[in-house]
Amino acid sequence: MSPEANSPGARSRRRGRTSIDLRRLGKAALLGPGARDRLPDAIGHVAEAHRAHHPDADLLVLGKAYVLAEMSHRGQFRKSGEPYITHPLAVTLILAELGAETTTLTASLLHDTVEDTDVTLDQVRAEFGDEVCYLVDGVTKLEKVDYGAAAEPETFRKMLVATGNDVRVMSIKLADRLHNMRTLGVMRPEKQVRIAKVTHDVLIPLAERLGVQALKTELEDLVFAILQPEEYARTRDVIADKAATGLSLDTIAVDVRRTLREADITAEVVVRPRHFVSVHRARLKRGEMRGTDFGRLLVLVGEDADCYAVLGELHTCFTPVISEFKDFIAAPKYNLYQSLHTAVAGPDGAVVEVLIRTHQMHKVAEAGVVALGNPYAPVDGAEPADGERADPTRPGWLSRLLEWQESATDPDTFWTTLRADLAQDREITVFLADGGMLGLPAGATCVDAAYAQHGDGAHGCIGARVNGRLATLSTVLGDGDTVHLLLADGPVQEPGEGPAAPEAGTRGAQSQEAAPGPSPQWLDHARTPAARIAIAGWLAANPESLRVPESEPRAPGAVTAGRRGVANVVVDVPEATVRLAGCCTPVPPDAVTGFTVRGGAVTVHRDECSAVGRMTALGRSPIAVSWGDEAECRVTLYAESFGRPRLLADLTEAIATAGAAIVSANVEPPSEQRVRHTYTLQLPDAAGLPGLMRAMRDVPGVFDVRRAQHEPAS
User: Fold this and answer.
1) Which of 155, 13, 145 has its CA nearest to residue 76?
2) C-beta neighbour count of 678 within 10 angstroms
3) Higher-scoring residue by pLDDT: 583, 558
4) Buried b vs exposed e over 367-401: b needs ≥16 C-beta within 10 Å?
5) N or C end of the chain, less CB within 10 A?
6) How many Å apart are CA 63 and CA 69, to the nearest integer?
7) Paired strand residues for 298
8) 8 A C-beta contact, residue 534 and residue 457
């Protein structure tokens, strides 16, 4: 799919065109001008690179594919003047050097035949099978005649959907774009910039996510040279200056080899120069560059355990920079990358970055999914269960992309959202309360987790618990968090009839007949395209949810009753005034401790109250305290809930039914989805406290009730 294709004299593609006799071409490819097993000379270098990774590969099918590609592209030339067949050959060589298997190379040789010649998909299928046909179809562009300006975004949509079923489609596309970028100099400057921008925004992030670092780094440098020519020239000069003086990394590499040899660890130590973009970023970050900043040391070993042995020797014999240590072997990156990263200080104080990995890890780090071969090949001769293809290389980000693209029917929306999605280059894993897990981009919130787990069912989400604690939907999730999403049971009921619905502080007042749904503020918290598209779709279908209500219900103000002056406790200080601490509101039979405060009064705290530790640290002497004979007590409770009509009335009814009297009550203004209630209650008997708290938790919309243990947050 080269943008440089030029076919003077070639007739345009049209319906009813004459097909090529592939059987005749296939026979010619097999027989060739000489012996039956001889390959055309033009693909000798491809065959050599392929055999280096796959010694037992059947090369005859490659010869057959080459003859078809050469004859179908005959008469076509690139804008550089080269025969067009040089492009599929170059793309195939790139993939062969990365270790791609034979099916991928076959499809790579044919990847432009259906798009630019008279060869049809049916003919490819008949001669090379369904898999090769699928790969060729996956990388074939859509016609501008049919799609107009939407041809490019819809072509990428088609490729991504095909990649979801077979990642080898994107491997061919990345190699295709790399060769096109290498030869982009013959294009007009404005077209170079346009292609470079698409490569930067879409294909480089895809190469990163698929782990194909060898292609990604070269693409980055080629794009850098086109989009930032001045910075590229400056970086090139800096690298040339340092190369003339020699790298101090070579000296340190010798010391590392000697250290590992003395430790009897078999390892290969090589100096790995940084590519242009990496040097540019390091220069912006560090300013003046030292010799060791222009590369890293790469240590390759045989087994996983050897990686940690090397790490131990380096940290023992050199001065380690602990903050630079990262273990991507125990916790691989989402793009299959595994390695140990560390940094040590050389004799002159220069810091050297070191990468430690096995040879297999290095192969995967360079080639990513390409190095994994055919993900659908039978294991030990067994076919996949139920005839289904289960691709082990299909990561969570790709599954999410395939899901949200179905909702982005508009090409412009898809194209804009795709670029934004690919710009998020880190992933986290969160665990669900039911034992499942979700992969989300870094920075994702509870809103994103809700739509990732429940799809459109997340419209009824009213809150979440993160690591066991009640959290707002705007809470940013961290790697390894456990999230329990709370969903409304259905539409808002008539007062007193059912569970909560509209979130306080996000939807404002809604009619009691309205179904629960997302508020416009959710768009501020959504980071994943799936969440944003679903929320925007719901809001567009429910425009009444965007109307500002004429009046907002006012939060109930604080109501304070008279306070008791005598506490039901006995202290060892005669005639001292005794107060029960408001920070923890002790009640019988809590274990309690007293402390003398200003004015000679004694304040009584629960033993687990944080104030007890602070008083003791200040040298305050505790005072023995015991409970009196009175069963009556006072306690302060905090209730966390989501707003709904009649919630306050239902809570106070539950409190009254339990036989408690409200001394004071305060409902704070809603904060996002959460409403906080503070009640100071008088109980006739402290034994009734657990039952009271259970009754309050049973009120629909209330998710947590706890006793005060610290001063309420402002």
Assistant:
1) 13
2) 16
3) 583
4) bbbbbbbeebeeeeeeeeeeeeeebebbbbbbebb
5) C
6) 10
7) 270, 355
8) no
Joined together, the tokens standing for residue 192 give 């170079």
Euclidean distance between CA atoms 657 and 74, whole angstroms = 90
Cα–Cα distance for residue pair 47/65, rounded to 1 Å: 13
Rounded Cα–Cα distance for residues 55 and 49 (Å):
10
Amino acid at 420: A
Long-range contacts of 540-543 (CB under 8 A, 24+ apart): 542/517
- Indicate the pLDDT class of residue 301, thresholds 50, 70 and 90: very high
Q: Return d(Cα 198, Cα 128) in angstroms, integer.
A: 32
How buried is 454 (Cβ within 10 angstroms: 0-12 exposed, 13-18 middle, 19+ buried)? middle
| Of 181, 185, 175, the residue nearest 200 (C-alpha) | 181
Active site residues: 115-116
Question: Which pLDDT tens digit goes with each residue over 620-650?
Answer: 888 878 776 665 777 888 888 877 777 788 8
| Bridge partners, residue 272, by sequence | 296
Altogether, the residues listed in the chain come to a count of 714
3-state SS, 577-625, equals CEEECCCCCCCCCCCEEEEECHHHCEEEEECCCHHHHHHHHCCCCCECE
Instruction: Give the residue from 510, 376, 458 showing the smallest Cα distance to 501.
Output: 510
Q: What backbone torsions phi and psi does residue 461 show, to the nearest 5 degrees?
A: -70, 130
- The DSSP element (H or E) to which 349 belongs, if any, is none
Place of tokens 């306690």: 635
**Single-letter residue type at 291:** G
Over residues 402-430, the pLDDT tens digits come to: 777 777 777 777 777 787 777 766 777 78
Radius of gyration of the chain from Cα atoms? 34
Q: Are 486 and 641 in contact (CB under 8 A)?
A: no
- SS3 string of 687-712? HHHHHHHHHHHCCCCEEEEEECCCCC
| Nearest in space to 242 (alpha carbons), one of 274, 218, 202 | 274
Percent pLDDT > 90 in the chain is 26
Backbone angles phi, psi at 484, to 5 degrees: -120, 110
CB atoms within 10 A of CB 508: 17
Token pair for residue 390? 């289960």
The pair of structure tokens assigned to 671 is 């904060």
Q: Of 238-252, 420-434, 561-575, give the lowest mean pLDDT range.
A: 561-575
Q: What is the rounded CA–CA span in Å between residue 312 and residue 325? A: 12
Q: How far apart are CA 99 and CA 97, in angstroms?
A: 5
C-alpha pair distances (Å), 270 with each of 254, 257, 346: 10, 9, 16
* C-alpha distance across the termini of the chain, in Å: 62
Q: Which token pair is 218?
A: 């070269």
- Rounded Cα–Cα distance for residues 582 and 591 (Å): 16
Contact 360, 334 (CB under 8 A): no
Please tell me which residue, 543 or 609, carries the higher pLDDT value: 609
